[in-house]
Prior knowledge:
Layout: E1 2-5, H1 12-17, E2 25-26, E3 29-30, E4 36-40, H2 42-69, H3 82-91, E5 98-105, E6 111-117, H4 124-138, H5 148-159, E7 167-172, H6 179-193, E8 197-202, E9 207-209, E10 215-217, E11 226-229, H7 233-238, E12 253-255, H8 260-263, H9 268-275, E13 285-286, E14 296-300, E15 310-313, E16 316-320, E17 329-333, E18 344-352, E19 355-364, E20 373-375, E21 377-379
Parallel strand pairs: 4-21, 7-8, 7-11, 11-12
Antiparallel strand pairs: 1-4, 2-3, 5-6, 5-18, 9-10, 13-17, 14-15, 14-17, 15-16, 18-19, 19-20
Amino acid sequence: MQRHTIAARADWQAEVESLGFIWHSAVGLPYWAEGTYYTLTEAETDRIAAASEELHQMFIAAGEAVIAQNLFARFGIPDWCVPLIRDAWEAEPPALNYCRFDLGLDRDGVPRLFKYNCDTPTSLVEAALVQWFWKEDVLPQSDQYNRIHEALVDRWRTIAPALPGALVHFAHVADSAGEDTLTTAYMMDIAREAGLQVERLAMPDIGWGDGANGGFFDVADRPIATLYKLYPWEWLTAEPFGRNIAHDPRGTLWIEPIWKMLWSNKAILPLLWQLYPDHPNLLGASWNPPPRGRDYVIKPMLGREGANVSIVRDGQVVAATDGRYTGPAIYQEFLDLPDYAGQFPVIGSWMVDGTCAGVGIREGGRITGNTDRFVPHVIG
């Protein structure tokens, strides 16, 4: 893996905005960093794909362990959600099953797992779309490890016959940066390309009706048969409105399913380490601080975007972020990533139904936050 600098396109802002990528800058600096790119060898992409697909199978085994050993309380999951998770896990309702592993390549080039973003994975537009068009414009002779868009279209086509209605609603909450809004719009385009009818819906506009003919409705009082949501399950189930899911007479199909509360929770990391101790693609993880002399990272179970994370080295906190995520935390082995000109790249490995479909790269400090830069890549 090598890092390169290159001249940015003179009109790069207009180019990426034409693709719907309007959150290309943050705090006055480019979030989309096309003045830099990485090259990955085919051997490295093969290694990332193999590790990702093996990790995915390990997550399936960990989910089975949660179900079999009734570990829901350890994950902080409300009691009323447990039967819904069990039912969805066993029934395997139609789902995209799209996720993003965050991986670091250690100094031997071995992919190591930081976390699994499998409920509401973001950076989709830049990974699937923007970096591909950058490559076509700037380095058209090069290849890129990226068929994320095609894999998602194929997946929508696969599940379409099993969906309970012809119309799919897509819900999100408006955000100031526009990321959730445009990511949802992009997913709607993908579903439309797969032949589905789509309708946008804001999460606060989802209605509920009691009784045998009740259930979830949109603003036009149409029943919601299938709902794609870019909204975390742990937020939804913590709200009084979310409890209606347990009493839904129509049985709205949620994409993604509620069992993703297991994989998106960092409580899964210590369990994985128990099931697969010393696995080369894992980092040691536990509920308690490691023994003295070991470096580690403290992560909230339900944190996002690198918030409320601390790095402890030689017994001292050497880096920390603030945020609004409190509550239980886990301890994960610190990975000393290779330093690329003061940048520490994290690889987002995109999975669609258990298969690795491509990667995106973000670089920044030791803790990757929501303003750290997205950098395109090619295979070289």
